[in-house]
Amino acid sequence: MTQKITLSIPDRLYEKLNEWRSSFNLSKMFQDALSDAIEKKEAFSKKLCEEFDMTQIVHRLQQEKEQWLKNFYNAGRNRGFGWAQAAHYQDLLYVLDCEDTCTTEQEIVRHSRFKAYFDHIYDAHGLTRFARQGGVDHEKKFLEGWFDGVNAFWNEVREHI
C-alpha cells in the first residue's frame, strides 16, 4: 500500500521542476532520498545508543540542570534580598503587591520603574544571553528566588515598621 503526501517547494524550484518534470520520476527520487535520510538517522541513533549509556547521560544532565537552576534561584534570592534592603518603601510595596497581582514575573522586569535594574542584573547573571537561546527555566528560577528574597526581607522588617 502506498500513501500520498503533499510537499511544498519554493516558486523558483517549481519553475525549474516544470522544465524538467518529464525527465524525473519524482516519487522514486523522493523515496530514495527519504530512505537514505532515515537510514542515516537510524544508524546514528543506534551507534549513539551502543557507544553510550544514554540513561546515565540523561541522569547526569538532569542533575546538572537541577544544580544549575538551584544556582540561579539562589542568585536571584540574594539579589532580591539585597535589593529590598536598599529599596524605597513605595517600591517595596509595589513589588510585594506585584507578586500577587502581576500575571507573569516578567511584568516586574519590564516595568519602567525597574527595567534598568533588571537589565543590569540580567547581564550580570547571563540571563540575557541564555534567554536569546530560548531557555527560560533558569530565568523563572532566578525571578522566583528574587521574589522570595524580597519576601524574606519583608518578613524580617514588616513588624518593625
Written description of the protein model:
- With 161 residues, this protein is an all-alpha fold.
- The chain contains eight helices and no strands.
- The N and C termini lie far apart (79 Å).
- The model has no long low-confidence stretch (mean pLDDT 87).
Average pLDDT, all residues: 87
What does the radius of gyration come to? 27 Å
Outline the low-pLDDT stretches: none
Q: Main beta sheet, described?
A: none
N-C termini distance: 79 Å
Helix run count: 8
Structural class label: mainly alpha
Outline, from the CA principal axes? Answer: elongated
- How many beta-strand elements? 0
Helix content: over 70%
In terms of DSSP E residues, the strand content is under 5%
List SSEs in N-to-C order.
HHHHHHHH
Can you summarize this structure?
The protein is mostly helical and 161 residues long.
List the helices and strands and how they pair.
Layout: H1 11-20, H2 26-51, H3 54-86, H4 89-101, H5 106-110, H6 115-124, H7 127-132, H8 137-157
